[in-house]
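User: Reviewer 2 asked us to show a designed sequence for the structure in our supplementary figure. I'm pasting the structure tokens here. Could you produce the per-position amino acids so we can include them in the response letter?
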């Protein structure tokens, strides 16, 4: 997978730019707050139709403009592909080779990306919600149907929570038969989500364990564990898991009515990381947390290649300066001749140019971009 051309119109601080990205490694240099991260974000949004930085689409549109447009031309193993995403207050319109897609799920997956930014350390040490979002974004890239299941689950969850709030407590008048309908719908979509997460994590761990071992010279063993809000998902089929979900909701019914919220389901799942048997989030050093995050991101590259048959783009947003020489070398050697990479940095001193033969360098200043000789 290779991005040949990127064009932006009214996207954040970019009025209008058109950029040729013919090289395997494209480095964007400039001081902070000039638009480097916005550029990488636009590629991420073109792939997933969502930003990794904000839930508010209006923030992607330039000040005093009505819409933003992201356009990209990519080469895939099946041939060239043109992607366009329009973002406005009315929503998003997505086109593949000029044809508008009725659903965004028909657009997601045409371009695959892996983003690695300093805040990705929060995947390891941050709140469970960050890890759930990570899972949802990455699984959705390779299995667009998962996005539909997540969307439906969230709608049902919101409606069920509203019902619990309205009818919970003494004299609330909750009707068992109506709650049972919500339970069945929640368990139906929730079960699909949990099985997909379990499968994804098993594959991610297989790749991450090998990569982590290489980075640490076989001194550390990485384990990734799915922690569902109830039960076990590894051995159960969907029918068994659905039945367990329904039993769990029945058991906690009174507690949910008192608290006015849903207390079990994939919206309360978590992801745990262990090094040599010790949980990284609690007991790992900062170096081990960084290595775990790097291993996970490099594993994503291999997992996506395994799932879709070609490597995604790699977006490195100001992370090379965060890595020591060993991790930086491991990262650069991993991507060589395999993954088209986009790097942002405040200066080239953090990048070992001798290891990057097919390189383009761009200067970024106040929403304008100029190519220079590396």
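Assistant: Here is a per-position design you can include in the supplement:
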């Amino acid at each position: 997978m290779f991005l040949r051309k990127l064009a932006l119109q009214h996207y954040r601080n970019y009025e209008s730019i058109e950029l040729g990205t013919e090289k395997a490694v494209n480095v964007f240099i400039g001081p902070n707050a000039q638009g480097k991260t916005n550029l990488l974000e636009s590629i991420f949004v073109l792939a997933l139709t969502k930003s990794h930085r904000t839930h508010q689409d209006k923030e992607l549109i330039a000040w005093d403009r009505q819409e933003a447009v992201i356009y990209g031309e990519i080469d895939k193993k099946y041939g060239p592909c043109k992607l366009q995403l329009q973002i406005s207050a009315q929503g998003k319109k997505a086109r593949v080779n000029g044809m508008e897609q009725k659903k965004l799920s028909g657009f997601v997956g045409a371009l695959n990306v892996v983003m690695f930014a300093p805040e990705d350390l929060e995947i390891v040490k941050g709140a469970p919600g960050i890890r759930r979002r990570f899972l949802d974004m990455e699984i959705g890239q390779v299995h667009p149907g998962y996005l539909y299941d997540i969307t439906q689950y969230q709608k049902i969850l919101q409606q069920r929570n509203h019902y619990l709030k309205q009818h919970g407590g003494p004299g609330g008048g909750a009707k068992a038969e109506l709650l049972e309908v919500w339970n069945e719908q929640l368990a139906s979509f929730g079960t699909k989500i949990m099985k997909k997460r379990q499968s994804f994590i098993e594959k991610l761990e297989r790749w991450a364990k090998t990569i982590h071992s290489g980075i640490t010279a076989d001194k550390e063993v990485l384990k990734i564990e799915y922690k569902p809000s109830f039960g076990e998902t590894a051995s159960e089929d969907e029918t068994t898991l659905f039945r367990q979900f329904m039993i769990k909701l029945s058991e906690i019914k009174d507690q949910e009515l008192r608290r006015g919220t849903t207390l079990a389901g994939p919206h309360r799942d978590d992801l745990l990381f262990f090094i040599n048997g010790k949980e990284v989030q609690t007991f790992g050093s900062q170096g081990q947390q960084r290595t775990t995050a790097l291993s996970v991101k490099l594993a994503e590259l291999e997992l996506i290649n395994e799932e879709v048959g070609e490597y995604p783009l790699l977006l490195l947003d100001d992370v090379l300066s965060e890595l020591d020489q060993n991790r930086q070398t491991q990262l650069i050697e991993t991507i060589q001749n395999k993954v088209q990479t986009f790097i942002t940095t405040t200066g080239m001193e953090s990048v070992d140019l001798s290891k990057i033969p097919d390189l383009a360098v761009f200067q970024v200043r106040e929403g304008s971009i100029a190519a220079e000789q590396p």
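For the response letter, you might also mention the following. The longest strand covers residues 2-11. Residues 176-215 form the longest helix (40 residues).
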